[in-house]
Design goal:
With about 500 residues, this protein is α/β, with parallel strands linked by helices. Helix content is about 35%, strand content about 25%. It has 17 helices and 28 strands. It has an eleven-stranded mixed sheet with strand order 11-10-9-12-8-13-16-17-18-19-20, sandwiched between helices. Strands 21-22-26-23-24-25 form a six-stranded mixed sheet, sandwiched between helices. Strand 21 and strand 22 form a beta hairpin. Helix 5 crosses helix 12, helix 13 runs parallel beside helix 14 and helix 16 runs parallel beside helix 17. The relative contact order is 0.08.
């Protein structure tokens, strides 16, 4: 059990005003932003979030026995006799306190942070697979789950709050984790969830249209991503200089070059002057092959991930581990150890005469890339199933509907996490972007998937887009289980039975 003297913990905060008297003998056994989680002597920190303001729950924290409270709004009346530490920014204070409370765990590991619109999950899984093949002790945190060695824990967010992150990192240090790879979303970076994280390598995959409901403009979105590279710094850690891994095929690369003081390693599938360049690229329905060129040397690479965008993801992962000292001769051979990533062009087995895939693509760029890859290895028709998520990013709905109908032979429009927004409004926005007549609309997503697989003919490919690994489905405000791969597997079984 962790216990930290309250005076030592609060001393971490440079700019603060203390109202009341701290008990010098008080040992803090927990810090939390959830008043319901507070017990006797714990530290409660008031976070003013996007939906809930912790300053409104001080009385609950006091009733539960809080020993000290950190805030940036006046809570003196609610705090009663509990000492309050006022700070300019409780979000930043939380990251500083959490880092100190858990013993600065990231300092003892090699940390790779991955950001970008698309490809974050795939890059982190590739890095983990390569390092595991080298018999390294690894940890991973991202959109799908958290790994501590071979342990798997489900996650709620791509990047958790700083307390949750530092607690997980502390657990990893107890398991002697050597390498930690994590996804860092733009929202998490802007909200400061990664503050206190001591990075060795920062990776940028790409920047395309996403999260406009939060950032509002592409310029603001890009600036949020840059925070990772500013945080990287230019010092040494674990005996090595830090490195920024940047995609030379993304037009924003220059702005990221000047955002970091660390050494830059570029990668490309187009520009042979990049530090890591892929050439002689070929791929099938199940594998991709290419030659990696670094410093004039060629390294053959075989990956079970399909498509040009996955070549780019593989280059990013290889550059990241290379920056940490892993020999390319070993890293390139280890790439094959990753069989695939859940919900990322994931094959649903069992269909003998058609291909069925599930993919998380939920942005215009991701959809365009996935459908382009599927088209190249499909002999028959490409049948896609997708919807528009409710309550966010209205402007991308017609764009994605247009891309889907233009790059597919047939489209079945359906729902995707409607939330409380009327489905009629969502589908109307999608239809506004369609100029072709190669589609139909089936509101029930399960029925839409079943129909797509039922009408597929030999040689066709059915691609289920937008949800990937996600099983929690928001149906008009009610959460139900709906996993595309499970629904598809049942539909394939029924199709096979009918063909007997």
């Amino acid at each position: 059990m962790i216990c930290v003297k309250v005076t030592d913990l609060i001393d971490v905060l440079k700019m603060k005003k203390l109202i009341g008297n701290l008990d010098p003998e008080l040992n803090i056994g927990k810090i939390s932003q959830d008043s319901r989680d507070i017990q006797s002597g714990d530290l409660f920190i008031c976070i003013d979030g996007t939906q809930v303001d912790g300053h409104n729950y001080v009385e609950t924290a006091v009733a539960n026995g809080a020993g000290v409270i950190v805030a940036h709004k006046d809570i003196q009346k609610a705090a009663a006799n509990v000492p309050v530490v006022y700070v300019p920014d409780t979000g930043k204070a939380m990251s500083l306190l959490a880092n100190h409370f858990y013993g600065y765990p990231s300092e003892s590991m090699k940390v790779i942070g991955v950001t970008g619109t698309n490809g974050k999950t795939t890059v982190t899984y590739l890095v983990e697979a390569i390092l595991k093949a080298m018999d390294k002790k690894t940890g991973l945190m991202g959109t799908i789950e958290m790994h501590i060695g071979d342990e798997v824990h489900k996650t709620k967010n791509t990047t958790p709050d700083s307390i949750t992150m530092q607690k997980a990192l502390h657990l990893m240090t107890e398991r002697e984790t050597e390498y930690f790879t994590l996804e860092l979303s733009s929202i998490a970076l802007e909200m400061g969830r990664a503050w206190g994280l001591d990075l060795d390598v920062a990776v940028m995959t790409n920047l395309t249209h996403e999260h406009m409901e939060f950032h509002h403009t592409m310029a603001a979105y890009a600036e949020a991503k840059k925070l990772l590279f500013s945080q990287l710094g230019n010092g040494r850690k674990n005996g090595r200089t830090k490195a920024a891994i940047l995609n030379a095929d993304d037009e924003t690369i220059h702005s990221y070059r000047i955002a970091t003081a660390a050494e830059v390693i570029s990668y490309s599938v187009k520009d042979e002057t990049a530090d890591f360049f892929a050439t002689d690229i070929t791929y099938s329905r199940t594998q991709t092959r290419f030659n990696l060129v670094v410093n004039g040397e060629r390294y053959p690479v075989v990956t079970n991930l399909v498509g040009l965008y996955n070549v780019s993801n593989t280059l990013a992962a290889l550059a990241a581990v290379y920056a940490l000292g892993i020999p390319l001769e070993d890293a390139t051979k280890a790439v094959t150890s990753l069989a695939g990533v859940i919900g990322r062009l994931e094959i649903v087995p069992g269909a003998n005469d058609i291909g069925v895939y599930v993919d998380f693509a939920h942005s215009p760029d991701a959809m365009e890339k996935v459908l382009g890859v599927v088209r190249e290895f499909t002999q028959g028709r490409v049948i896609s199933v997708f919807g528009g998520a409710g309550e966010r990013e209205h402007e991308k709905r017609p764009i994605m509907a247009r891309i889907g109908t233009e790059l597919s032979d047939y489209v079945i429009l359906t729902t995707d996490d409607t939330g409380k927004e009327p489905q009629e409004q969502i589908i109307a926005m999608m239809l506004a972007g369609i100029e072709k007549d190669n589609y139909e609309y089936i509101e029930n997503r399960k029925e839409a998937i079943q129909h797509a697989i039922a009408i597929a003919e030999p040689g066709d490919t059915v691609i289920l887009l937008g949800r990937g690994h996600e099983a929690d489905y928001n149906d008009r405000g009610t959460m139900i289980r709906l996993l595309d791969s499970e629904v598809a597997a049942e539909a394939i079984e029924l199709r096979n039975e009918q063909k007997v």
